[in-house]
Automatic annotation (TrEMBL):
A GO molecular-function annotation: 2-dehydropantoate 2-reductase activity
Entry keyword set: NADP, Oxidoreductase, Pantothenate biosynthesis
Function: Catalyzes the NADPH-dependent reduction of ketopantoate into pantoic acid.
Keyword Transmembrane: no
Documented EC number(s): 1.1.1.169
Name of the molecule in the record: 2-dehydropantoate 2-reductase
Amino acid sequence: MSLHWHILGAGNLGTLAAFYLRQAGFSMCLAGRPEAPRRLTFPDGRSHDLLLPGDDGAPIRYLILATKAAQSLPALAPLRPRLGTGTTLVRLQNGLGSLDHLPPPHPHIIDAVANSGAWREPLPGGGEHIHLAAENTTLLGDGHSQPPSWFGTLADHWPQLSWRPDIRLQQWLKLSLNAVINPLTALYDCDNGALLADSRLQPRFGALAEEIDALARHLLPEWPGETAARARALAQATAGNTSSMRADVRAGRATEIHYINGYLLRQAEQIGMALPEHQRIVAEILALHRP
Ligand SMILES: NC(=O)c1ccc[n+]([C@@H]2O[C@H](COP(=O)([O-])OP(=O)(O)OC[C@H]3O[C@@H](n4cnc5c(N)ncnc54)[C@H](OP(=O)(O)O)[C@@H]3O)[C@@H](O)[C@H]2O)c1
């Protein structure tokens, strides 16, 4: 199967996607950017040097969107004349709501939940060096039970890539954990495990989790609850890790709070529900940086 993909956002996850698209035999190039060198190092030490071709200016049929959530609409704006209703857009991002205000034409959107961990640094001589610290599951879905025809070929080459008919639930499960762990670790500048060790943080941890369960029960009939227990288990399993939001705050970058806790607030507002603990923590995180 010969498909041509464009990658918008060749940072950590975009480079990983570019690597696996090539492994699967698909052609690809960047969108909106010139040719770019990348080195991708896997957790076992294997390294690959890639030269990602620059934008070919052609109509975009298959697109991976892997910018940070807040960069999505500005990055997509100049590409609009090349997008159409026949475009498939795979949104390889954390958080929810980054395409809620995408003007027409509306592509077919496939959502993702990415559980790998990667960071990057400049490559001597130009380009970026992507370090994949942990390679975990990547879930894709668009609400349909069956994946598109190209998916099997990609999944044959992308370890732990799976199609999920229940992608919305999977996104909310991930969002719920991010919405507890990320802002608390960013605010208190601590590793994930410190959330469990510091008893002063427990009331906030519990309150954030309870508010998520109350909202999610309204919106998702299949919501399993138990957000506090799941967040505790994740904080334990990743005790030494720095959350992406803490890393963003430390580096002086804008965080994705608007698409994590902020998304929960917008959903709650639509059904007239208050989430005071989330409201408070969004304000506190925004006070740390200017989005
Ligand atoms: N990193 C992880 O471990 C990880 C894990 C799971 C989920 N995620 C999620 O995946 C998403 C992407 O994260 P990431 O870590 O891959 O981000 P990232 O490394 O910052 O990559 C974003 C890329 O988008 C590029 N970009 C920004 N604006 C652009 C534009 N207008 N046109 C073209 N390219 C543009 C950036 O280029 P410049 O650098 O030149 O600005 C950068 O290369 C986020 O939602 C994140 O939360 C990340």
